[in-house]
């Protein structure tokens, strides 16, 4: 029970210590007479850089006695053999201690501020016996993974007898190897007995690829009888102090692994030491990656053998711990494979701002990713890359670099002074899903990663995908915004590799593309007048709130030269078709019926004025000159022929459609039955006397159309007639047309007298 309680206390103290932003080595090992160097990290703030640094020794009652500090204080026992150096540029300070003795063994703290209340980290210092002879026992010291040679001597009378070395395990001495060729399986391939010769009266045991379990007492023996020779050797295997890595929560760290080039053979790897002795591989050059590091880890090889780097970004609290980097043919640590130890600390009091680790977009839509960087490095190069199979392929940079297949889709916006930049990716496809990294050429600790997920849905902004513009004409690009973006700033810009330059745009009022919130949805248009060759390219329509960008939609404008005489006119304000194409969406958005009303009214008024004038007497010479007489005699028969042809075609089509057809008269569309032509007898020429043409805008079947109605002005005193239907108005208009044509034909001097 007491042991369980002590274990709980140790765990509690360890957890409290790990929460401190001060970080250093948990254990420091050295040998008697040697030295130790302790590096302590602190958060990167101006206060910490100028605060007092100290090294103190913990007492029995929890009190920590200062031994040395950055203020120049050095205790009596440390004078002449210790010093403390602050390195503010790397946010560290180092305590160096020399001439270590057994009295230096104990528990210490390195910290900032006042010893009793400042931020600190616990360090355990262990001092072992150094090489030499102590009480007839030879002391040997070697590093983990290294090689040691244990020398054994014997007397001349035992030169021809068997030599052996065994290791004490409790009361037993287990044979390691002997001169007959036996090797213990646990030392197979690592232990070798070397006999120098009878003249030197010595032999040696060489053990390579040392393990922690190899430490202990060894006994050298020559001969088996009472005259045998025995020598004791104490082997101490020192675990190398791991390299320290200090990282901030949500930040990034880099493991720079440097292995012995002679031993670094095979696949490189980085593994994490668990609660036991197992080291779980998190990445290697054979393609293995741990699931919890997916999308946020990179392995970069160097041109020099034995050198490689591993980057981890998006640090989490659970990433802290002991790591090993190494090389082996299996891509994982094996007995004897070279390794390098790293201790990673994650500071939870991070200055790196929070940002979404996941962004979601829909096919055809867009996403805006906000990236953070060290505000002190405003002029650093910013870029964005896509993580794939442990590598990160650069897509866009702040110096005008955009990967070819992302042209028109990707842009990087810098926001000088606030430590952020924004990357916008639009025209999303299902293949865009994956992990992306925000990087700079400056402080690597600010690297971050984000996962892009493609979900079901439709883009919020609506605009045509491709538009054809005619040279020297006017083009109007429409863009619809839903009501949720009512208060956002709307903009149009032209895309280039260096960004997207904002262009003047105009709000056109409520958008008709959204039925649920028409009063708050908007239509914003961009006008190019006149269109030039340089206008061809990608245009973006988007919204933003302050410096934060939201959705965008991309439109490609192709500029063409209209061929002379071509009738393939593509008007800017064309009426929408029923096919639902991208071009139809554009035409529906920018249609303005009022633009047609004035033109058609002027045309209709002129035509009716010419057609409703009084007929000219052919016998009167005062009514016309000779030239006008010839002109009328030529045009009137031609008009009559065209009118008769139109009537004939209408009759044929009417019969073909079973007496129902749609006839267009001056842009007015209605239905006329063939049986209605008989009603023309009911209308005389006097019906149109004094009529004036008035153009009105009406709405038929929910669509905007134009109609021309005739209102009598000479009989205004008569009672108001019932309102005619659209069909009756069409009959009257058609009858008036026939009567006018008949009257003109009758008045022609040389033409026929009857229609």
Provide an overview of this structure.
The chain has 755 residues and is mainly beta. It has six domains: 16-128, Immunoglobulins (Immunoglobulin-like, Sandwich), CATH 2.60.40; 132-238, Sandwich (Immunoglobulin-like), CATH 2.60.40; 243-347, Immunoglobulins (Immunoglobulin-like, Sandwich), CATH 2.60.40; 358-455, Immunoglobulin-like (Sandwich); 466-590, Sandwich (Immunoglobulin-like), CATH 2.60.40.10; 599-615 and 626-711 and 724-747, no CATH class. It has six helices and 45 strands. The strands form twelve sheets. Strands 9-10-17-16-12-13 form a six-stranded mixed sheet, with no helix packed on it. Strand 22 and strand 23 (307-313) form a beta hairpin. Helix 5 runs antiparallel to helix 6 (726-747). The longest helix has 31 residues, at 626-656. It is elongated, with a radius of gyration of 47 Å. Residues 1-18, 566-632, 658-723 and 748-755 have low confidence and may be disordered.
